[in-house]
Amino acid sequence: MINDALSTAEGKMKKTVDVLRKDLVSIRAGRANPAILEKVTVDYYNTPTPINQLATVSVPEPRMLIIQPWDKSVIKDIEKAIMKSDLGLTPSNDGNVIRLAIPQLTAERRAEIVKTVKKKAEEARVAVRNVRRELIDDIKEMEKQKTISEDESKKGQEKAQKLTDKYIKEIDEILEKKEKEIMEV
Known about the structure:
By secondary structure, the chain is α+β, with helices and mostly antiparallel strands. The chain folds into two domains: 2-26 and 106-183, Ribosome-recycling factor (Topoisomerase I, Chain A, domain 4, Orthogonal Bundle); 34-101, Gyrase A, domain 2. It has four helices and six strands. Strand 1 (41-44) and strand 2 form a beta hairpin. The mean pLDDT is 87.
């Protein structure tokens, strides 16, 4: 019973870390990364469609993204969608491809981005701790209903804490890596 609860909780914690990873990938760190376009959608035949489903996105150099649409008629729509997005990038279009120059980040912009990243990491930590709290409540409830012994309850709670520590550490490592990437000039 405890093992079921533990594996369910671990699944939730793992998902929290995965969501954090995905969120941080889309944060611009001064280096070209096709993932920054993942949340940008283009109105393609009245359907919001991600850019990566309409075009090939490549990184020819560290500060440049090239978007090559498969259907040339959608190039203006892609350009508009990028302009409307909160990326703060200005696309240049030559009729065949769209070039996105990724500007060097200023020191204060880097600090803002780091603050945002830290906030997202803290939200992930809180989510992991909430999962731990629910798990410990479940374990205490099992003990109260006499489906497990007091010793099993204590062991279960220790395992819950170890699991939490493992995922909090993983979140901290992800944060540290992203912070380093952002502050790198």
